[in-house]
Amino acid sequence: MTRTIQQLERLVDCRLVERTARRFALTPEGAELLAHTRRILADVDAVAAELRSRAALEIGFSWLLPDAWFAATRRRYEEQGGRITLRRVDGPLAALGERVVDIAIYRKETGLPRHLASRIIATEQRVLAVAAHSSLAGATDLSWSDLADRPLVVNTVSGTTDAASWHPADPDRVVIACTNFDEWIELVAADRGIGVVPDLARTRAPHPGVVYLDIPDAPPSHVYVAWRARPVPPRSVQRFLAAL
Predict the structure, then answer these.
(1) What is the pTM of this model?
(2) What value, to the nearest 5°, has the Cα angle with vertex 95 and ends 93 and 98?
(3) Distances (CA, A) of 20 to 17, 25, 26, 175
(4) What is the pLDDT at residue 43?
């Protein structure tokens, strides 16, 4: 502390503390500097608090958000004084890695680089999507294995289902690839192949050319949230994770 005070005295070019064997007290100049410093630090704290209140946590997602989960999480986070903005992006994980968003919500199971972390936030039942004029449109009692050799439309960026979702996977299966949900649903409507999506699509993404069918034994899919774990996340991200 003595060295720090001496450095400060050299900086302002005056004595700030009287130091004797029996006395250690502020000089008039030291008392004046202390009063100014307290006011400056209070102003800094106030400005920092104001800026934090304006900052919004940006959440990237590629497809529909789980309704009940997101509403509850948003309410808890905003009760703590936080704000959330949403950004629709085709690749939420890529946007997270590029610091375009603070949080990524995604459904496609994938390995993450070491500086990212994730956790499961929801589990969803899968449903079959077929063209309205497909021979399958009126089918009942379909099983997961009944679909194993059908041409399959796959959203390679954010989809939840691909040929490897069936075991064993058919190496000769016809796969029609696309990179977003809009392309995916139009390809299904054109009867280029079947599609499989979370049940949420039935009510949130209706399409006049697509019929959604139940597959009771379909394996469920998961919804994940990811964040930058290294370096230590900012307090806004930590508060959001605590609100999950």
Answers:
(1) 0.72
(2) 110
(3) 10, 9, 12, 86
(4) 75
